[in-house]
Every structure is written in C-alpha cells, then in structure tokens.
Amino acid sequence: MTWLRSRWERLNGPQRIGGVDLARGLAVLGMIAAHLLWITEPFDWTDAATWIAVVDGRSSILFATLAGVSIGLVTGGRAPLTGRGLTTARLRLVVRAILLWIIGIVLILTGVPVFVILPAYAILFLLALPLLALPARVVLPLAGGLALVMPFVQVWLDELPFWRTVAGHDVGLLIGWHYPFPVWIAFVVAGLGVARAGVTRLKVQGWMLAAGAVLAFAGYSLGVFEDEASVWSADPHSSGLFEVIGSGGFALAVIAASLLVCRTVLTWLVLPLRAVGAMPLTAYVAQIVAWAIVAASVLGDTGDLAGFRDLEPFWPLTLTVLVACTAWALVIGRGPLEWFTDTSSRALTRSR
Predict the structure, then answer these.
(1) What domain count does the chain have?
(2) Which end of the chain is less packed: N or C, by CB atoms within 10 Å?
(3) E strands, the chain, in order
(4) Residue 97, Cβ density class (10 Å: 0-12 exposed, 13-18 middle, ≥19 buried)
(5) Where is the Heparan-alpha-glucosaminide N-acetyltransferase catalytic domain (predicted)?
(6) What single DSSP character describes residue 54?
C-alpha cells in the first residue's frame, strides 16, 4: 500500500506539473497519429473531416517547445540556477543530449520509415545551454527574433549542394535535419522563456493561451496567401515563416490549455495522458520499436510504410501505450528510459 501511495504521489504530487505532462502526452500521441494514420487533406478548422491533420507537424513542434519548458524547469524555473548548480545542470544536459542522440540513431537503424526526432532534440539541448542563465525578459524576445529570422536562413541552408549528395543524406539523418535546428531552436527558446516567466502561474498561463491563439490565427491565416516561395509557407514541416508563427503559437496555446485543464477536476480524467507525458521518451521509443517488431514479423519489411498503415495499427498501439504507461507509472514509477537518462547524467557528473 505504501509503495502504491508513493507511486501515486510521484505522478500526482506537487513535484510534478500535471499540465506539462498532459501536453507531453498529447504531443507523443499526436506524433504516433502522424506516423500511422493516412492523412490526405491539410488541416482546415472549418472542415471537421480534416481535423486529424492537426497532428501533422504541430505535434513535433509541441514536443520541441515542451523540451524548452522542461529545460527551464530543471534549471531553476523562474529563478535560473547560478554558479556551480548551473554548471552541473549544463553538464547533465550534455550527457542527456548524447544519450538521446545515441537512442535516436538506434531507432533510425531499425529501418522504420519515420523521421526520428531525437537526434535533432539532442542538438537543440546543446544549443540551449548558453541561454540557461538568462531571464524571461531576454529569452522571450530572443525566441521571437529567431522565429522571424531563421526561416529565411533555413531557405539558404537547404539550397546548399551538400544536401543532395549521399553524404548529405546521411548527415541529415544523423542531425535530424527534417527538424532543422536553425529554425527549431526558436521553439525550444520559447519554451525556456515561458518556464522562466513562471509557467505554473495562472497569469502566465492566461497570457500564453491568448498569445498562442493570436499567433496561430495570424500564422495560418497569412499562410493562406503564400506563394511558391517556401520561406513564407505555413505547410507542416516546411519550416516556413508562417508555419513557425502558426505552429509555435499553437504549441504555446496547447501547453497553456493543458495547464488550465489540470487546475480542474478534469485532471483526473486525463490521468492516462499525463502518465504518457511523464515518460515521453519511453513512450516514443516503445512505439517505434513495436512498429519495427510487428512490421518485420507480419510484413517482412520494417520500411513498408503503406503496408504497416494498412494494418490499422493506430488504435491498438495508442491504447497499449496509454494502458502500459498508466500501469507503469502507478505500479513502478518513473519510465525506464527516463530513469536511465537521469541516472546516467547524475552518475557521470557526480564529481561536480
């Protein structure tokens, strides 16, 4: 009984921010949906038949923004760590980044036909390190500046001949270029900024929801008028200016809405989603590993995307993830990969 109580408190106690876990859970399940469902029409809020397309691109951007929130929270929240504490935190983030990169490469080697986000995630962790001592009043304007400038830089980078070579293709996989860090760092910095502003404060959550909704509306509305120049695109995974504005705003709004939901009794109804969000790395890796095993045994080819989608695996896999993560969180506690990365980072930096 005491064991179960301690696991319940780990998931629901004051040391966890339920709304952040909920948003992470939504991001993970959104990425699973983007991987496994046939999405044939772009998202149009006026057409309910297209609403499933909301997961395309936006789920991974939500995941990246939440990375910034998590980095901000573990490095002091509203009061950034300083001195030795900040140095130790930076070293632990370096170790986690290396481990994430290695796990990402292993997932790529399974041959499952998805663009694995973890290598890009690792690089984004490293790029955030110099910003950890900065307050919200500096970090949030920096995120806005990056969002406005970097899509133009990305167009130039994507035109480099190197990416059309065999070596360029391989390097692209190794650094997660499908989620290009020159642009995506804006999402991480935005997440870091709201953590520094005090993401648990009701006032901040209200401003996040309002600002995110405005940015999403502006980005997607202006994206309707885009021309052939990709720099202005609002299309998923385009890294165009209007995608960055629209989907970045969408991510902030979802995080804020999740935090507000978890201020109500609804927090108990979304407990399975919060459990997934409490172990996002485990859930993300598990769904790709399960995909590889099923595809290899049933289809004889882990790379057959159409064949695997035709098996209609989304609901069985999603329900399994929800049930397994909830049971693990309530009976065992921390997710296995979360435990591994945290324990490893602490062990390797213990002398500090």
Answers:
(1) 1
(2) N
(3) none
(4) buried
(5) 16-219
(6) G
